[in-house]
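User: Run a structure prediction on this.
Assistant: Running it now.
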Amino acid sequence: MSGTGLKYLLVLLILWTGHAVRADIYKCVDADGTITYSDTGCPEGTREVEKRPEINAPTKELRPPSVPLENRLKRLWPPDGYQVLTSLPFVLGAYGIMSLLCGLAIFRDKRKSINRQWRTSERTLHLLELLGGWPGSLVAQQVFRHKTRKLSYQVTFWCIVGLHGLVWADVLLHQKLSRTAMNLVHSLL
């Protein structure tokens, strides 16, 4: 038998034995108080105490959670739990680090384009820009004269810059824009 045929036979054997193992389990008690377990039902002279369904049996209808979604989200994201992540020094530091990484990625991509090597994908560059590296990307594009003429790249880049500007405007306006948008969504639903 070939190696492939043996693999298929082994898979079929595992599936067949797995099917044979699935069964309900009955807990039975006889007149003396002796407990026995069976997968075929309780024998004569015993009574059924408990029946556990097979593991993969369909479950009963799911109930909604007892804790409302809003309360569960508050437990996951407490209002005062992430103040460090939203502090100005942390945010500026993150922008600085991501700008440096994005600038290095643009430099590396430019060098690879000159040497006709495998280049960094535009998706990767845009992801770095979206994560806060757009200032470094803007500087690197101008210094290294790279990706400045490609229209599709520039459109996506400036959309990312606009998105960051919109988020900062919302932060400076104390989330008035996002609250208005959420109220609009709630009114549509």
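The chain has six helices and three strands.
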